[in-house]
Amino acid sequence: MGTSARLQRIFLPFAKVAGPVPPTVYIPYAIAILPTFRLSAIFVVFIGAFWPIFQNAVAGAHALEQRYRDNARILGLQGFEYQRRVVFPAALPHIFTGMAVGLPSRSSC
């Protein structure tokens, strides 16, 4: 989503609305919809950890320096190969920051 303007236009409004919602809001819905309490707990922890990681991954992909994009274009990298060899390694610091924010704070739920 951080490298595609089209995906950003489609999913960013949803991410901006759903991201700030505290995971505890989802607890009654998860209990009502999911068949077991264990699945409900897993879902709530997943949602709580997902948004910080996702938003930081998008920010990391979006912050990719133009020179890396130019070099990838010169080397002929496109599609999945471009994502795997250029975008993902460049976004890893942001992804790990999102994990540091999202995972420890949700483990006490």
Q: What features would you highlight for this structure?
A:
109 residues; mainly alpha; MetI-like fold; 5 helices; elongated
Account of the protein in words:
With 109 residues, the protein is mainly alpha-helical. The chain has one domain (5-106): MetI-like (MetI-like fold, Orthogonal Bundle), CATH 1.10.3720.10. 78% of the residues lie in helices and 0% in strands. Helix 2 packs across helix 3 and helix 3 crosses helix 5. The longest helix has 28 residues, at 79-106. The two termini are 29 Å apart.
Give a nutshell description of this structure.
This protein has 109 residues and is mainly α. The chain has helices spanning 5-18, 27-33, 37-62, 66-75, 79-106.
CATH architecture descriptor text: Orthogonal Bundle
Number of helices: 5
Portion of residues in helices?
A: over 70%
Mean pLDDT: 87
Number of distinct beta strands: 0
Give the uncertain stretches in residue-range form: none
Cα-atom radius of gyration: 17 Å
Within CATH, the superfamily carries the name MetI-like
CATH class: Mainly Alpha
- Oligomer designation: single chain
Shape: elongated
Write the H/E string, N to C.
HHHHH
Distance between the termini: 29 Å
Assign the CATH topology. MetI-like fold
* Count of the domains: 1
Helix and strand content put the structural class at mainly alpha
Strand content: under 5%
